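4.2 Preliminary Data

To establish feasibility before requesting continued support, the project team ran the inverse folding procedure on a target of 193 residues. The structure was first converted into the token representation described in Section 3, and no sequence information of any kind was made available to the design step. The complete token record follows.
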């Protein structure tokens, strides 16, 4: 009986090591909800499409609508000084958050397609040029149908899988920023980038 327990423990451990070390970009993600049929997603193809949309957004969104955070809820105004919203027509296609310069240079940037987040870009020093390459960015989260399907990190960190809570938090932030824009966007003035 003891040998069976040991063998089962070894098998379980080996399975966990293999599953945790597999690179997420080569996985096919199965997105299934109780109300939908199971759908297999080619992550590489979705990521390539999102990268193309990001490039188009970077070329077209020049003048942001700037919203100061002074009268927003405490968590937002403590973390960010301003929120920049970039539009294509009347649709928000990009949101970039800027911290207080005396506190940090970290920015978060969100790309949207048809009102849905498709990419989040986090830069520890996000004050430079737009449209940086993957290698110049600290973290990128790719979204497909409201879920993170790929995470890219430029630095080696001790994480082996995408944490669902990171993606959920970023999606909640985007939703809040879109609500802020819906409430205050018309009163804000565009500023040259």
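Position-by-position output of the design step:
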């Amino acid at each position: 009986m003891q040998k069976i327990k040991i063998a089962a423990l070894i098998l379980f451990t080996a399975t966990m090591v293999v599953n945790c070390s597999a690179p997420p970009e080569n996985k096919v993600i199965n997105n299934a909800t109780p109300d939908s049929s199971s759908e297999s997603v080619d992550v590489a193809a979705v990521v390539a499409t999102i990268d193309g949309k990001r490039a188009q957004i970077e070329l077209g969104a020049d003048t942001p609508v700037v919203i100061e955070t002074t009268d927003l809820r405490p968590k937002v105004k403590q973390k960010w000084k301003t929120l920049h919203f970039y539009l294509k027509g009347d649709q928000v296609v990009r949101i970039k958050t800027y911290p207080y310069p005396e506190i940090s240079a970290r920015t978060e940037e969100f790309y949207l397609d048809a009102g849905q987040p498709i990419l989040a870009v986090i830069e520890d020093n996000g004050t430079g040029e737009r449209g940086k390459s993957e290698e110049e960015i600290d973290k990128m989260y790719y979204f497909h149908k409201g879920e993170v399907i790929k995470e890219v990190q430029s630095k080696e960190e001790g994480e082996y899988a995408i944490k669902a809570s990171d993606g959920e938090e970023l999606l909640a932030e985007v939703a809040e920023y879109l609500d802020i824009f819906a409430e205050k966007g018309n009163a804000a003035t565009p500023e040259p980038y």
